[in-house]
Structure formats: structure tokens, C-alpha cells
Amino acid sequence: MKFTDDQIADIGEEIIKVLKSVYDPEIPVDIYELGLIYDVQISEEGDVKIIMTLTTPNCPVAETLPQEVKDKVGEVEGVKSVDLELTFEPSWNKDMMSEEAKFELGML
What we know:
Number of strands: 3
Protein name: FeS assembly SUF system protein
Domain MIP18 family-like: 13-83
Strand order of the largest sheet: 1-2-3
Pfam families: FeS_assembly_P
InterPro entries: Fe-S_Maturation_MIP18, FSCA_dom_sf, MIP18-like, SUF_FeS_clus_asmbl-assoc
Organism: Chryseobacterium vrystaatense
């Protein structure tokens, strides 16, 4: 079964909601607003590919955070599989945060 563009958009919205429920343990802002999610691709079959980074390669949750993202996104209705790619190119910096995240951290 193939999803329509509308269904894919709905799955995408649900994935973003899930990503906004995952927090970096050192910063009280979710990983989506922090700009740690570089890309989310959803195929017509419901296969999801997420490209994300961490605030630093030595992040204490380098092992657990990507797994948490993978597990939570995998529970979204319509998602068949999740392929998560961790990258440090380009490396994360504060400019990647949303206005909301900067405001939350008192940087605006």
C-alpha cells in the first residue's frame, strides 16, 4: 500500500510532534527546536529516514538519544521502518536553534 501525499504530510506532522517530545538532557529545549534534526524523509511505503546530529560528538547521550528518537518515531502510526543517520557535518551551532529555543534560553 502506498500513502498519498496528504497521508505522508500527516505522518510527517506526527513525527515532528514526537521529535518535539525528545529533549537534550543538558538543555531544556526539545531536539527539534534545537535544530538537531537535519532532515526527515518519508517514503510512500512509510519508511522514514532521519538525519540528525548532537550538540557535541561527546554528548553524554550519544548512545541513548538517537535510539530514543528511533523508538518513538517507530511508534507513529503509518511508520513502517526508521533509518536514523547520525552526522556531525555540518556540526551543530547555536544559530541552528529556532527563535523559540533562543528565546527559551534567554538568547534573544
